[in-house]
Amino acid sequence: MSSAPFDGNRRPAAITNEPIRSYAPGSPERAALKTRLAAMEKECPEIPLVIGGKEIRTGDIAKATSPHKHGHVTATWHKARTQDVQAAIKAAGEAQRDWSTWRWEDRAAILLKAAELLATTWRPTMAAATMLGQSKTAFQAEIDATCELIDFWRVNVAFAGELYAEQPLSSQGMWNQTDLRGLEGFVYAVTPFNFTAIGGNLPTAPALMGGTSIWKPAGSAILSAWYTMQLLMEAGLPPGVVNFVPGNAVTVSDAVLTHPNLGGIHFTGSTEVFQSMWKTVGNNIAGYKSYPRIVGETGGKDFIVAHASADTAALATAIVRGSFEYQGQKCSAASRVYVPKSIWPDVRDRVVAMIKEIRVGDVKDFRNFMGAVIDKKAFDRISAYLADGKANAKVLAGGGAKGDTGWFIEPTLIQTDDPSYRLMCEEIFGPVVTAYVYDDAKWHETLKIVDSTSPYALTGAVFARERKAIHEAHAALRNAAGNFYVNDKPTGAVVGQQPFGGARASGTNDKAGSKLNLLRWVNARTVKETFVPATEHHYPFMDAE
Ligand code: NAD
């Protein structure tokens, strides 16, 4: 591909967000999804590694199950051994030599095709895999596995085009150019269970910019990750550009993080894991060919703070949707709320009434608002928080957990009198929201508490009708959230509209799906060409008077 057949900076179609389908009764998308769900439930793929375009079966096999029906095996998958990881690193290096010489438009065309396949023929498969494997409802699967991933691929292409178009000044007689090279080493993309779209984005964003990656998906999201990998191959991604290496996190990381060719880490997951990876890189810093780019989006303890002027119906709805959609397993999920005494009884009663209406169960039953939490570990962790809430605070609604057939936790509202109670500070990652009721006169003090309660700074929301209060919240909470919402729930960021990422312990805030993120995957080379170079070292100022 080094001799390109076309000249010019070719522009793809203008970008718009993928429209979200309703899946309402009678809609064609609902029928197609139900058909695919029924078929997929009978399948149990044996998922291999994909290294340099070749499927590898290691024989070290794990099982994936449905969170809402944990006796049901959705897939079996082969786990990478150290030698497989070494082979993947080699394949990434070999692919990079050719891939990095491709025109950006040709790399982009693959992702645009992937987006188009996902919007059409692959739509029911990706949604069904996310429902069965990660227990998302049809709507949550649509906004994640379909729309968000399509948006990542299309929006990244648009931003990449803009980045390549940005060039330095030149003056007469010479030409300055910026060459945005893909990273020389491979990128280690480590993805979480809770967003299929993040799984698809983290390995492909560096690839779009001319690099290659080793992708380690979460075992608990293996089904959707496997279909994402197959979709990318169907879209024409060349062998070795993205290497699919599921496995034991420590086995894979040990081999990857100490390799001299590590060019970067693209991580989303918990703060603890991210910090341990950063430490390993720090300890090995003298051994790398380049300084690895470290990008990580991690945990949160996301807040909603209400002013006495808040619209209580809107506030209560935001608490319910923001805290309980996808069982509270969004990094952006609301999990601590601050409400003034004057409006609390109204807000509390509305939230409790809505919780009573929420159906929890198998996501194949479209009447359910919530499915199950991801696995037994999560179920046990959240159950322990519920027990703590019952012992040390007041459970106003929910509080139950039932794990016999699926990992079900009731949507739960807890009230505490202590703003530093652990349920107000620690990330729970489940459908549990804790409220602290403050004196109306203590609005300013409360904003300070919101700002200082947790080490995280991912998302947050203020509800108020008085403009002055909104202004005060903006100022007091400027560093408390990377994504800040005014009169809206703190979840549901749309790619290209609300670039997503948090500060403080929540991550490096490189905003997935934005130019800021893509810039981390290039290494700029500046080229100066002089058309008629000087042939005399002497300058005029050196002449005799
Ligand atoms: P996790 O940290 O357990 O796992 C994330 C990934 O890291 C998985 O692929 C896992 O296998 C891998 N991993 C685990 N231990 C590892 C190790 N020692 N070395 C290398 N890799 C390792 O997180 P999770 O449970 O999958 O996801 C939930 C977390 O992700 C929450 O904390 C949530 O807030 C965060 N999250 C953040 C964002 C964001 O944009 N800020 C988005 C989604 C999820």
Q: What do these coordinates show?
A:
- It is built from 16 helices and 23 strands.
- It is an alpha/beta fold.
- Strand 8 (213-216), helix 7 (222-234) and strand 9 (242-244) form a beta-alpha-beta unit.
- It is globular.
- The chain has two domains: 82-298 and 507-528, Aldehyde Dehydrogenase, Chain A, domain 1, CATH 3.40.605; 302-486, Aldehyde Dehydrogenase, Chain A, domain 2.
- The termini are far apart.
- The protein binds nicotinamide-adenine-dinucleotide (NAD).
- Residues 190-195, 198, 216, 218, 249-250, 253, 268-270, 273, 276-277, 297-300, 331, 427, 429, 458, 500, 502, 506-507 line the site of nicotinamide-adenine-dinucleotide.
Topology summary:
Elements lengths: L27 H15 L3 E2 L1 E3 L2 E3 L4 E6 L2 E10 L3 H18 L4 H16 L3 H12 L3 H28 L8 E9 L3 E5 L5 H13 L4 E4 L5 H13 L7 E3 L4 H9 L4 E7 L2 H13 L9 E5 L4 E5 L5 H13 L9 E7 L3 H14 L18 H17 L1 E4 L3 E2 L5 E2 L2 E5 L5 H4 L6 E7 L4 H10 L3 E2 L1 E5 L3 H10 L6 E4 L16 E2 L10 H5 L2 E9 L15
Parallel strand pairs: 1-5, 7-8, 7-10, 8-9, 10-11, 12-13, 12-20, 13-18, 17-18, 20-21
Antiparallel strand pairs: 2-3, 4-5, 6-23, 14-17, 15-16, 19-22
Helix pairs in contact: 1-4, 2-8, 3-5, 4-5, 4-7, 5-6, 10-11
The protein binds nicotinamide-adenine-dinucleotide (NAD).
